[in-house]
Design a protein that fits this description.
The chain is of the alpha/beta class. It is built from two helices and three strands. The radius of gyration is 11 Å and the shape is globular. The termini are far apart.
């Protein structure tokens, strides 16, 4: 929830934290509100196909996003 309040956040690096699909779903919910986000790194988080789908759906509307590492 705290991440949602960081509306000017441009980069979020959560790589190598092994958050899994459930964690990816929570990140996906949070980043929907981060319209200034340009970079999101979830590399090495073992999010699998389910988590990737959740993130992909969430970032679809983020037109400022230029870098996505899964």
């Amino acid at each position: 929830e705290a991440v949602r309040e960081l509306t000017s956040l441009t980069s979020l690096d959560l790589g190598d934290n092994r958050i899994g699909a459930e964690g990816a779903g929570r990140v996906a919910e949070a980043v929907r509100e981060l319209t200034s986000l340009t970079s999101l790194n979830l590399e090495g988080d073992r999010i699998g196909a389910e988590g990737t789908g959740k993130v992909a759906e969430a970032v679809r509307e983020l037109t400022s996003l230029t870098s996505l590492d899964l």
